[in-house]
Amino acid sequence: MAVSLKGRDFISLNDFTWEEIDQFLKTALMIKLRLKAGEPFQPLTGKTLGMVFTKPSTRTRIAFEVAMYQLGGHALFLSAQELQLRRGETIEDTGRVLSRYLDGIMIRTFAHQDVLDLAAAASIPVINGLTDLLHPTQVLADLLTIYEKKGHLIGLKMAYLGDGNNMTHSLLYGAAKTGIHFTAATPKGYEPDSGIVARAKEEASKWGAQIRVTEDPYEAVKDADIIYTDVWASMGQEEEHAKRLKEMQPYQINAELMAKAPGHALFMHCLPAHRGEEVTDEVIDGPQSIVFDQAENRLHAHKAILTLLL
Ligand code: CP
Ligand code: NVA
Question: Hey, which of 54, 270, 294 would you mutate to test ligand 2's pocket, going by the most ligand atoms within 8 Å of its Cβ?
């Protein structure tokens, strides 16, 4: 029996059990099928989602907005620049006030603690649309994409190359919760958070899945089913761009590196990509790349989150 997720926040994949993640994935698949069949599915008629952004977005903003519309509800884009937040109203008071108007809040911001504080003050579900620490809605869409391509998740091998960032952290949780073996290859000084790695190892051990962090990109890809990367300088790290470019060069996903991986390995990227930096055109535009299927699945994954929580 599926448990009710109504009223829950969506802040970290680590807050959910495997069964709950499976429920999100099954719901997303069902909603996607109905959309493709032209069957309306509008469980959120009359409901409104507020979307607070302090960072730019293409996919997250548009996929959440279209998801609410197609589910029969409405989405409001709230630039933090134009809210009283900018003039010092607290995140807690903002959460209390928004709870009086809305049915859910999606927020993309810098400090992860701000999302936790907002969720603690709000009486409606809060969805993490990316912080400096985590990006869970992306990884739910990624798990959906991998499941569609491979037919299962447990036992697959994923290699992540580059910066040990918000994507790495959510991929660690997503892989650990679903039994995917996960290796992060990052340069010295750019490793993922050790607390998150430790929690992921604990979760993964329930499946017998391995979680590893290495400096060797070739070691990571040699038996990978999935090769994943992300930008080397995330939003807010623009000033470090040149330094990171130099230090992360050996982790670039190019044809030479793909040749060291199994021929069936799929290439994934959350996008936006910095072509010529973390990935070359030949790989991202090549036959192993599934990046635009990933991007599409943001819509279907977001609909599952909204349908189950709101
Ligand atoms: N992948 C992702 O979150 O994209 P946006 O920054 O465009 O939302
Ligand atoms: N790590 C990237 C992900 C963008 C979707 C960033 O935070 O900018």
Answer: 270
pLDDT tens digits, 157-211:
999 999 999 999 999 999 999 999 999 999 999 999 999 999 999 999 999 999 9
From 64, 167, 193, mutation site for ligand 2 pocket: most ligand atoms within 8 A of C-beta: 167
Q: What is the DSSP string of 68-125?
A: HHHTT-EEEEEEGGGSGGGGT--HHHHHHHHHTT-SEEEEE-S-HHHHHHHHHH-SS-
pLDDT digits (tens, 9 = 90+) for 211-243: 999 999 999 999 999 999 999 999 999 999 999
What residues make up the domain containing 220? 136-295
- Nearest ligand to the CA atom of 231: 2
* The token pair that represents 252 in the structure block: 């670039």
- Same domain assignment for residues 258 and 154: yes
Kindly report the CATH number assigned to the domain that includes residue 76.
3.40.50.1370
- Is 2 inside a domain boundary? no
Say if residue 144 is in the same domain as residue 291. Answer: yes
Same domain? 140 vs 289: yes
Quick check: CB of 167 below 6 Å from ligand 1? no
Cβ < 6 A, ligand 2 pocket: 130, 135, 165-167, 230-231, 234-235, 270
Q: How many separate domains does the chain show? A: 2
* Token couple for 29: 């698949």
Indicate if 142 and 280 belong to the same structural domain.
yes
pTM of this structure: 0.98
Of the candidates 122, 142, 124, which has an alpha carbon nearest to the alpha carbon of residue 21? 142
